[in-house]
Known about the structure:
Layout: H1 9-21, H2 24-31, H3 35-49, E1 54-57, E2 60-63, H4 65-90, E3 95-101, H5 103-110, H6 114-120, E4 124-130, E5 144-149, E6 156-170, H7 172-175, E7 190-193, H8 199-206, E8 217-219, H9 222-230, E9 235-239, H10 243-248, E10 253-254, E11 261-271, H11 278-291
Helix pairs in contact: 1-2, 1-3, 1-4, 2-3
Amino acid sequence: MSRSKIPPMPWLAAFESVARTGSVTVSAHELDLTQGAVSRQVQKLEGFLGVELFTRDRKRLKLTPVGVHYAARIRDSLTQISNVTSDIKKNPLGGALELAVLPAFGAHWLAPRLKAFQGHAPEVTVNFTTRLSPFDFSQERFQAAIHFGRDDWPDAQSLHLLDEKLTPVFAASLSQGAVLEPSDLAQLPLIHLESRPRAWSRWMRKNDVDADTQSGMVVDQFEAMLQAAAVGLGVALIPSFLMKDAETRFGLQVLPKTHAIESGAYYLVWPEGMDAYPPLTSFRTWLEGVIR
Length: 292
């Protein structure tokens, strides 16, 4: 970003104060400046932008439509700068990491390990928010995200966490006590995950099973898939990090004598320029140790 495109901070602070208070006099007191100095800062900003931010009727100032929009955006930016500055002064090596996570990976792989992270970096708090698809970091509050698929998040750096390997599981009621073979899946209902539409067809090819993989129910999350499999609605393809819960919590069985398929990978991703943010640095360093 070219610094020549950014107005000086005193101009922005003067404009935001006048826009908020509606008074040059009040702003002068707030900023510890003279009224003339505040007015000159605002005029310089208008000259820099090439637009009027206020209409002037005698001594009264009223924001123009452009001024209203600009004031809102500048206020948000100044608030962020103020909050970040305050956080660093209070806790220079720590703070909060706002992390966007995929629900199943966050709940079943990351959350159980976070107690160890607390021991590694007690000064850092990790806040989770669920997001199912990539987003623009510049338009969000997140400093990092857990991403599934390929290493292709725009304008971001990444750390490979693990590959996703899918294996079939089913409820005992579905097999009626019989020992299932891979070929038996051709006669059983299948449960599909919306974000892995070709997973079953790939699994069938790898395991030499000739079957129609188009039929069966479709769900949007692994948790729903496990629930559906547990009540005997079909066979589910699940990743290895869910296997413990599948067996202990849902009572599901693993189909023996099969080859798992890889469907993608999980990554920690963060925007360019965020590398040195202390909470992210601590979190990333800890994750690197976990995945070795």
